[in-house]
User: Fold this.
Amino acid sequence: MITPYVHLLVERKIVGTAEVLIVKKGRFGFDFYNDERQLVSTQVLREGDMILTVGGGHGFRMLEDTVLLEIKEGPYGAGADKERF
Assistant:
């Protein structure tokens, strides 16, 4: 058992953007890049899989119809939180 609790109001300074992806349906290729934007690895993610990204870059290649739930902290604006390469 985990004893019930609440999260206290703590001011935090966040640098960077962590992102969680949960695959609700389908299958896609997830490409991992290092900080030099070089491809490091590719993994196929399927329904029920979850991934947390905290550094480097990443890209997706949909292998079939896919539904993703994306969770990341904000605030962020249109294009202000990412650079495409």
About this structure: The beta strands are 19-25, 27-33, 39-46, 50-53, 57-62, 67-72. The chain has no helices and six strands.
